């Protein structure tokens, strides 16, 4: 009987403040979509770091013909200079830092270049002579790049030493800043959701002052009187959270899994399972918003 009464009161409240309830659902949906997008973006950054940082290499590019660098004054790197570099990489100073060394000739660099950029007209204009031979060095710890760079830089036959992490770090910096911006927008939308839930509960309480007054007179407990109002906010917020989860799942399914993953096959991307893993967090945030809003509103506007 009590459960039936509470459910009927919830239904009355939702119908009386239908427009506000819909607004709460929409604002909660948008704000939690931002929260979920920020979470997925961080998961994506983590996936890329785990995959790419395990593959990054230090590239020691050998002197080509016509280089302006002082160490390349003698022209293209000679066989003797290449042998000296190999000996240096095997030295006690560098060997403990290095996991694997691969020497890529001009012909191999050209073949890789043509394979990677196959079908692009501008790539057909590149000749084998335009590329450089290089040592591809995989480190035991990618953080020790500077040690290897300091030893190799300026050596005769080596034009430059490049750390592939620099390329990735720029990308990760952009993604992390985008994530921070998304979290900021989500925080503003969550604040708007709290204010809307608060207003909705207050209007619902004010519109039913007569009913709550009668309930006080017959000795109803505070929890029994307040529970319908609390559940109204919780239901609206939960619907918004579920809509957010559904929107994120559809977005990942059709934009990433069915489209982007087919075009960018070499990058690990977030999946629908990642959205489902975030779902409990989004639902928890929705319930927390409703709980905070309900407690603040009922304590202030509904003295029972």
TrEMBL record:
InterPro entries: ABC3_permease_C, FtsX, FtsX_actino, FtsX_ECD. It comes from the Bacteria. Part of the ABC transporter FtsEX involved in cellular division. Pfam families: FtsX, FtsX_ECD. Keywords: Cell cycle, Cell division, Cell membrane, Membrane, Transmembrane, Transmembrane helix. Belongs to the ABC-4 integral membrane protein family. FtsX subfamily. Forms a membrane-associated complex with FtsE. One of its GO terms (biological process) is cell division. It is found in: Cell membrane. The chain crosses the membrane at residues 21-43, 178-203, 223-256, 276-298. Residues 56-161 form the FtsX extracellular domain. The keyword Transcription does not apply. It is a multi-pass membrane protein. One of its GO terms (cellular component) is plasma membrane. It comes from Flavimobilis marinus. This is Cell division protein FtsX. Residues 185-303 form the ABC3 transporter permease C-terminal domain.
């Amino acid at each position: 009987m009590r459960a039936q009464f509470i459910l009927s009161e919830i239904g009355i409240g939702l119908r009386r403040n239908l427009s506000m309830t819909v607004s709460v659902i929409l604002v909660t949906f948008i704000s939690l979509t931002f929260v979920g997008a920020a979470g997925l973006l961080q998961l994506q950054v983590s996936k890329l770091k785990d995959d790419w940082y395990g593959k990054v290499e230090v590239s020691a590019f050998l002197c080509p013909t016509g280089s302006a660098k002082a160490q390349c004054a003698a022209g293209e790197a000679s066989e003797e200079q290449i042998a000296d570099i190999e000996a240096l990489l095997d030295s006690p100073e560098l060997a403990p830092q290095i996991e694997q060394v691969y020497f890529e000739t001009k012909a191999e660099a050209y073949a890789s270049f043509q394979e990677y950029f196959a079908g692009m007209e501008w790539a057909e204009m590149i000749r084998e002579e335009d590329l450089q031979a290089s040592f591809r060095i995989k480190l035991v710890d990618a953080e020790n790049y500077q040690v290897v760079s300091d030893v190799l830089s300026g050596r005769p036959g080596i034009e430059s030493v490049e750390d592939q992490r620099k390329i990735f770090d720029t990308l990760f910096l952009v993604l992390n800043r985008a994530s921070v911006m998304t979290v900021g927008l989500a925080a503003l939308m969550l604040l708007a959701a709290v204010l809307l839930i608060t207003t909705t509960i207050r209007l619902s309480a004010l519109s039913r002052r007569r009913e709550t007054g009668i309930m006080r007179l017959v000795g109803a407990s505070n929890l029994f009187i307040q529970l319908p109002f609390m559940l109204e906010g919780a239901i609206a917020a939960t619907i918004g959270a579920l809509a957010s989860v559904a929107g994120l799942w559809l977005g990942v399914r059709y934009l990433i899994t069915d489209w982007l993953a087919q075009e960018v096959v070499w990058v690990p991307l977030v999946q629908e399972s990642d959205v489902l893993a975030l779902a409990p967090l989004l639902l928890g945030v929705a319930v927390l918003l409703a709980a905070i809003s309900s407690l603040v509103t009922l304590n202030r506007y509904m003295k029972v």
